Structures are given as structure tokens and as C-alpha cells.
Write a sequence for this structure.
């Protein structure tokens, strides 16, 4: 009986000893796991904080970045349009071809001279100085790349005789017809023709052609919306 009691007490002591061994181990495991969780939590908080700071900074800088980007883009487009216009120097949008005949006669007593001359000329009209064209490029964010232009009114740029021939003539030494007299008569007629077609609306047609030509030029440069008007 006494031996059985001793065995029971021994078992009880063994159980206590086992409990004491296990208890520090669990405590140590729990203590060891806490630093890992703390590091993970700190890393997550750091990432979230940096993300929020970056987002805040981006929100502040975005308007300035947009403005800088579109300002640079606008300057490039302005230089491109200016260069394209300067390459043209003058913009001829209308030509008018005409032909006429002049007759010069002179006579003194029984001496007579005459010259019948046929000639052909071309009148050129358009914008004489394209550097006078004013333009403004739209820099609206997210909108179409657009440009507005103001053109000077068209004018006669040239009125040249491209061909002339003597149709018939008779000359007398007593009443000569000089070459200068023929040129003066041709000049008079060609200037009258220019005034006549201007009075009939030739320059109005030239303005319309200039607007159309400039519009096509701007579309070719990549603009999506083009507005052209006259000063």
C-alpha cells in the first residue's frame, strides 16, 4: 500500500516537472513570434505611409506638370506653323490668264504706220507676306488640337506679260511707231484688265481660296480643328 502511494506521488511529481518544462517553452515561442509580427506591421504601415505621401505630392504637382507639358507642346506647334508659313513666303491662291490685242496707228499726210500686237498676260493674287498671318493654338487639356488664324486680305501680286507677237504692221520712217509706245499701250490695257477683274470680285474669290489653302495646310500639320478668318 505504501509503495503504491509512493508511485502515485512520483507520477504526480513527474507531471509537475513536465508542466514546468512545457510552460517556459510556450512562453518563449510566443515571445519569439511577437517581433516578427511587429516587423511585418511596421513594414505595412511604412508602405501605406509612403504611398499616401506620394499620392499627395502627385496631386500637388500634377497641375504644374500638365501646364509644363502643354506649354512645351504648344511652343513646338507654334514653331512648326511659323516655319511652314515662312517657307511659303507668299501665298498665291488665284491666277487669271488673259489675252488681248492692241492697235497703234499714226499718219501724217500720205504717210501711215500701224502695228497690231497680240499679247497674253497672267495676273497672280494672294497673300503677299505670310508672316502677317496671326494664329493662336489651343492648349486646352483633353481637347482637340486646334488653331485659329487671321489672314490679311488678298492682293494683286503680279501682272506679267508672258507672250506677245506682232499680228500685222506697217511702218513709215516719217511716222515711226516705237517699241516703247507699244509697251506703254500694253501696260495701259493690262492694268485696265486688272482693275476690271478686281471690280468683278476677283480678290473675294482669292480670299476664299486662301482660307481653303491655309485650312488644308493646317490639317496636314496635324491639327484637328482649324478656324480661319480675315482681318
Amino acid at each position: 500500500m505504501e509503495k503504491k502511494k509512493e508511485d502515485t506521488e512520483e507520477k504526480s511529481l513527474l507531471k509537475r516537472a513536465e508542466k514546468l518544462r512545457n510552460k517556459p517553452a510556450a512562453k518563449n515561442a510566443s515571445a519569439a513570434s511577437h517581433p516578427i509580427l511587429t516587423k511585418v506591421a511596421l513594414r505595412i504601415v511604412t508602405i501605406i505611409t509612403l504611398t499616401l505621401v506620394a499620392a499627395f505630392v502627385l496631386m500637388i504637382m500634377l497641375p504644374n506638370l500638365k501646364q509644363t507639358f502643354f506649354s512645351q507642346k504648344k511652343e513646338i506647334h507654334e514653331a512648326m506653323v511659323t516655319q511652314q508659313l515662312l517657307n511659303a513666303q507668299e501665298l498665291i491662291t488665284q491666277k487669271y490668264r488673259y489675252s488681248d490685242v492692241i492697235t497703234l496707228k499714226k499718219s501724217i499726210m500720205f504717210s501711215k504706220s500701224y502695228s497690231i500686237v497680240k499679247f497674253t498676260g497672267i495676273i497672280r493674287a494672294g497673300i503677299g507676306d505670310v508672316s502677317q498671318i496671326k494664329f493662336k493654338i489651343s492648349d486646352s487639356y483633353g481637347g482637340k488640337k486646334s488653331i485659329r488664324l487671321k489672314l490679311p486680305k488678298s492682293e494683286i501680286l503680279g501682272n506679267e506679260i508672258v507672250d506677245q507677237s506682232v499680228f500685222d504692221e506697217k511702218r513709215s520712217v516719217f511716222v515711226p511707231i516705237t517699241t516703247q509706245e507699244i509697251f506703254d499701250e500694253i501696260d495701259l490695257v493690262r492694268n485696265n484688265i486688272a482693275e476690271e477683274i478686281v471690280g468683278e470680285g476677283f480678290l473675294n474669290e482669292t480670299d476664299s481660296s486662301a482660307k481653303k489653302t491655309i485650312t488644308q495646310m493646317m490639317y496636314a500639320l496635324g491639327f484637328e480643328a482649324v478656324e480661319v478668318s480675315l482681318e
About this structure: The two ends are 129 Å apart (CA to CA).
